[in-house]
Design brief:
By secondary structure, this protein is an alpha/beta fold. The protein has a domain of 177 residues: UDP-n-acetylglucosamine1-carboxyvinyl-transferase, Chain (Alpha-beta prism), CATH 3.65.10. It is built from eight helices and 16 strands. The strands form four sheets. It has a four-stranded mixed β-sheet, with helices on one face. Strands 5-6-8-7 form a four-stranded mixed β-sheet, with helices on one face. Strands 9-14-16-15 form a four-stranded mixed β-sheet. Helix 1 runs parallel beside helix 3, helix 1 packs parallel to helix 8 and helix 2 packs parallel to helix 3. The protein is globular.
């Protein structure tokens, strides 16, 4: 059994370990889960991710409860005759409160390369939550980029769930997939720029969504909406599509924060990105590393973040080597 140390990172290490274990069939035990965080141990969204991936690969687990600082994950054994694990089926998981639904989906996507049949996960929780990508980032930035590299998956949103109550509902369906090499070293010319500005429906009188979108660049296609949810909240996502890549820049509304400042935050990071030479944004960079490890390829990222460092180290624990090479004001990540 692979013994992993989760003390130097956060939930990303949990999600990536689950994905790799399901794909390779290698069981693991993770100790010191999120030890450096203010609230160490597994949280609701991590437990939900474990439950969802376990359902996909018939895994046995121990120690999976909120607050637990160690747990084990053992995928179902391979078929004796053809040495293949049969993965697929469906699961419904309640993340609880505003635990991030897109982050749970992140743990399931790489499993596509090992599926024998489609797998569907219906989740209830936070679709637009703190410390996580909003649903529109997942739907309009990450998922299309992965589809362009062979991943067959689709996500539908049934109800928004904002922080702190959550209550959102979304469904992910992942099909058996063969990934192409992830080659993202040059972004090319920008082909489109879309601003997605959403707010809970009671905020329409104050024009919260429109005020967030006021910061969007003139070139952007602005799309505003008001949607029912269990509590007030808002999100703004600026999605840029380039000739060879995509990038996204997101911000969430918070109590006491002017909507104009929410949009301006995302736009400022978009403008900084366009001033550089990276092919993907800094958050997408570490999220793409498992796919680079599984299918090969090279991506040009803005910088070596802590998330990149810890993800590269975890990939090594599963036998995948990812090279990190500074190149001007960017960094090349390759396998």
């Amino acid at each position: 059994m692979n013994i992993l140390d989760g003390g130097d990172g956060g939930g990303q290490l949990v999600r990536t370990a689950l994905s790799l274990s399901a794909v390779t069939g290698e069981p693991f035990r993770m100790r010191h889960v999120r030890r450096a965080r203010a609230n160490p141990g597994l949280q609701a969204q991590h437990c939900a991710a474990i439950e969802a991936v376990a359902a996909a690969c018939d895994a046995a687990t121990t120690g999976v409860e909120v607050g637990s600082e160690s747990f084990t994950f053992e995928p179902g054994e391979a078929d004796v005759e053809d040495d293949e694990r049969v993965l697929g089926g469906s699961v419904a998981v309640e993340v609880g409160t505003a635990g991030s639904v897109p982050l749970v989906f992140d743990a399931l996507l790489p499993v596509a390369v090992a599926l024998e049949e489609a797998f569907t996960a219906r989740l209830e929780g936070g679709t637009d939550a703190k410390w996580a990508p909003p649903f529109d980032y997942f739907r309009h930035v990450k998922l299309p980029l992965l589809r362009a590299h062979g991943l067959e998956a689709d996500a539908t949103l049934d109800r928004r769930g904002f922080y702190p109550r959550g209550g959102g509902e979304a469904t992910l369906t992942v099909e058996p997939s063969t990934l192409a090499s992830v080659e993202l070293t040059e972004r090319g010319d920008r082909e489109s720029l879309t601003a997605y500005s959403v707010a809970e429906e009671s905020m329409a009188d104050d024009e919260e969504a429109e005020r967030q979108a006021d910061a969007a660049p003139e070139a952007a296609d602005v799309r505003t909406s008001y949607e029912p949810a269990d509590c007030t909240g808002s999100a703004f996502v600026l999605a840029a599509e380039y000739e060879h890549s995509r990038a996204g820049f997101a911000a969430l509304g918070e109590m006491g924060r002017e909507p104009e400042a929410v949009g301006a935050d995302a736009v400022e990071r978009f403008e900084a990105f366009e001033d550089g030479d990276a092919a993907v944004d800094e958050y997408l960079a570490d999220q793409l590393l498992p796919y680079v490890a599984l299918a090969g390829g090279e991506i040009r990222a803005p910088a070596v973040t802590t998330h990149v460092e810890t993800c590269v180290s975890l990939l090594e624990d599963f036998g995948y080597d990812v090279a990190v090479e500074p190149d001007g004001d960017t960094v090349l990540l390759s396998a």
